[in-house]
Here is the input.
Amino acid sequence: MINKLCDIVNEDIKNYLSFKPRKVKVTDRKTGEETEIETGAEVIVRDSETIDTHNIAEISVSRNGNFKLKLSNRERALILLGKHLGLFTEKIQYHHNVKPFTGTVPVINIMQPAVPTGDTDKLVETTSHNE
Here is the structure.
């Protein structure tokens, strides 16, 4: 899997086709002088029998003859490789709409039990059951 991602990242369009400016010689009728002008691009597609086609995602030819070659997504492969190597980490942020508490909190001393006035019999009774 990692090797496949590396292949996608290192892929070069020149492995599938070559392109260069198309030049045409034009002769000036008045002077007879020849000049070369560029008239677009010349694209030569390599024979699929001689190349590795694993990284080709799409090939199409439109009705008017336009050729389209789309390779596997290099950016996505780089992201997956980076995650695998630990170069990127997912950061999850949690936001909530709770207002901060601004009131007072009663302090209870847990070392001494709080006994209401007049309930000392209950405290003795509870203590005797725990022993």
Remarks:
- The first helix runs from residue 2 to 10.
